[in-house]
Amino acid sequence: MKNTYLKPFMLLSIIVATLFACGDDDNAITPEQEDDIEANTELLAITNLYENDIVEFNQVQNGATLIASGFIISSDVSKNINQQIYIQDKTEDATSGVVIDVALDNIYLTHGIGQEILLKLNGLGMQKVENVIHIGAYSNGEITPISSDDFQDFVISTNNNEAIVPKTITINEILEAANSDEPLPTILVSIENVQIIDEQLNTTYANVDNNSDVDKTLINCTDEDTQTIILQNSGLSTFKALPFPTEQGTITAILSKNTLTIRDTDDVAFTEERCIDDSVLLHEDFQDITDTDEAINLDGWVNVNISDPQLLIRWKARKTEDNVFAEIEQGGPSDKYRAWLITKEIQIQNSRTLKFNLSINVNSRNSDNLEIFIIDSVTGDDINFSEANEIDDIIPLENTDGFITKEATITIPEDLDSFRIGFRYIKDNIPYTTEYQIDNIIISEE
């Protein structure tokens, strides 16, 4: 990454000038005052310094040291979080949070949840990793974990230990913020009335046989929507072989971007009777796909180019940061094809009037190439459907600048006992540039 030594220094100087005031060094920390250290800047002021490049924290005017404070919200006691300390600026209604990367294990023995720490920033740097602010040791334009030998020089415990009050929030609020100009910071949150999706019932927290991370999909139990969120569990956790609770309830977790991380299983308080057992007929968020940048190959799904199978243009799995989604390639300027992505078979249960939810992102739009249909059946490359069963008013007719959630009510024809949903991308021999990305497909009963 590019070293931005001068720009961060200038930004820090501006902040310091504001914090200390001209000629006022009452809060400045000199070597003689090491035993009586106090924070002299807010964590939010520090995180606001980030502008898409590495920030180096440098010594400021007159030998003063820049120090921020925060409260620990993480624990490595169950090894679901390793060699990282998550802090937020306040115990309640937090406005900022960061991850401190350290080359240290068993941090919980000396730095527990609720412990206030002072973070001496001289010699440290800041960067974003998958949209999450990280602070670590700075050297030669790179940020690395703070070594165990240097840890106590940078991370100083105070005598203040308080209870952390997680921010109560909904999945919808998280997703709306993630798609806005003001995403939520890395803080401790609490989400009520959620449960694991049907497809992941009777599974363990993570893989028993290996150390890979595992994503669990949680769905809410509210009447107004059926949004989902990812809970990521480490394959190194001590609880990875435990069964994930099948009930519904409240989860307390650290929110990083739009992904949750628990400290231990006590954070999963699922004790209430399971909700919406039968209402969700299909849910696919593509998170179980590991072969990204390859054609999507899901059990029961169809991914085919019926105009020119040899063209090898298919719907592919793509990954941005932690999120996996489906994307259709634009093809060349003269390519002509019909590329279908069709869900697995969905059985009719109690109702033919269903709710169809979809997250979609439209880029570089100069044409409208995507259509969505109710599909009767699929036999090989023979797709049986009626053009009259197109699902209207769900595909944006403009660029979306990120994923947005769309919803439609669909009615399944009376002569069908089962159906599929098909996404058809039509490309003529014209240089269309419109790119579609789809995610979080949910078919549920009203």
Fold and architecture overview:
The structure is a single chain. This protein is mainly beta and 446 residues long. The protein folds into 3 domains: 6-161, no CATH class; 167-277; 283-445, Galactose-binding domain-like (Jelly Rolls, Sandwich). The protein has 4 helices and 28 strands. Strands 1, 2, 3, 4, 5, 6, 7, 8 and 9 form a 9-stranded mixed beta sheet that branches. Strands 17, 19, 20, 23, 26 and 28 form a 6-stranded antiparallel beta sheet that branches. β19 and β20 (323-328) form a beta hairpin. Residues 1-34 have low confidence and may be disordered.
Shape summary: globular
CATH topology of the largest domain: Jelly Rolls
CATH superfamily label of the largest domain: Galactose-binding domain-like
Rounded mean pLDDT score: 85
Helix segment count?
4
- CATH class division of the largest domain: Mainly Beta
The parts where pLDDT drops under 50 for at least 5 residues are 1-34
Topology:
Layout: H1 6-20, H2 43-47, E1 55-56, E2 67-72, E3 84-88, E4 97-101, E5 115-120, E6 124-129, E7 132-139, E8 142-144, H3 151-154, E9 155-161, E10 167-168, H4 171-178, E11 187-196, E12 214-220, E13 228-233, E14 248-256, E15 259-261, E16 268-272, E17 280-284, E18 302-305, E19 315-320, E20 323-328, E21 337-342, E22 346-347, E23 353-363, E24 370-379, E25 382-390, E26 404-411, E27 418-427, E28 435-445
Parallel strand pairs: 4-7, 10-11, 13-15
Antiparallel strand pairs: 1-6, 2-3, 2-5, 3-4, 5-9, 6-7, 7-8, 11-12, 11-14, 12-13, 14-15, 14-16, 17-28, 18-21, 19-20, 20-28, 21-27, 22-27, 23-26, 23-28, 24-25, 24-27
